[in-house]
Amino acid sequence: MNERRAQPRSRALKAARIILPGGYSTFDCMVRNLSEGGAKLVMETTAGVPDEFNLRFEDGSMRPCRACWRNAKELGVSFGTANAA
């Protein structure tokens, strides 16, 4: 299988929170792999998660995200899309 990512991802198991635009709604998720350019997120359901949002890690850092792919419980994101929360 050909690797399409610009940077290789490392396995991770970190708690994070998806912050929707406006900052009033959130979704808890787990970061399962991570690179400088993106991540794979796992959650109960991806229903209701928009294509652009901010991701807040358990250390308090935040990254703007854009969904690249999704299925019922997983979401692949790239970092760098500005989206104020």
UniProtKB/TrEMBL annotation:
| Signal peptide, first to last residue | none
InterPro entries per UniProt: PilZ_domain
Q: Which SUPFAM superfamilies match?
A: PilZ domain-like
Q: Give residue ranges for domain PilZ.
A: 3-79
Per its record, what are the GO molecular function terms? cyclic-di-GMP binding
What is this protein identified as? PilZ domain-containing protein
Which organism's genome codes for this protein?
Answer: Rhizobium daejeonense
